[in-house]
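Appendix B, record 7
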Amino acid sequence: MKLILSTFFGPQTKKTALMPLQHDKHADSGPSVALAALEGNIAAIAIENIFQLFDFAALSGMLEIQAPTNCGSFYFRKGVLIHGLLQVNQRKIGQILVESQVITEEQLQQCLLLHEQTDSPKRFGQILLEQEYIKPDGLDKTLLRQVKDAFFEALSWNEGIFRFYPNQIPAADAVKLYARIDHLLLEGMLRIDQATLGGEDEEE
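Structure tokens (predicted):
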């Protein structure tokens, strides 16, 4: 497969400085050393086409994308996106909840303080549940929105490299999205178009 990509896209002479990749600590990766079954340059093949490949070929595993300013890890099961996250610049759960007016800024700061003071590792969402600021179904919806935001952010990247590792899955307690790629791509492109139009309106 690597040979096919190399033959199709030709030699990749342009080198781009990339952000150092930190592997997903919560992933269930199986063997300690995994070899990429597929890799390439997103400057040569658009990221949306890579996602479409996963859809058409019904691939299962983890797709790592390493861009100059960010990195992402996306998990698929038979071509369906089940989980995804970014290394940096991802909106936090608390930020999403405040913007959605589910919790107040004061409640957010209180939970952040509790999160810093806890001795044992505890997810921020668990603290929100314990304080009864949000219900379990509301937390799940927020986590799913975070996964979709990561996917939409990656769609805007046009430089970097991707690597696919078959049969890798997210942690058992990671929220699962189960979203069709074609639907996500359509929604993502609409978001990009709206953002572009919004920027043009501000310039006028």
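Remarks on this record: The chain has one domain: 2-11+33-190. The helical segments are 2-9, 47-57, 93-99, 105-117, 124-130, 136-155, 181-203.
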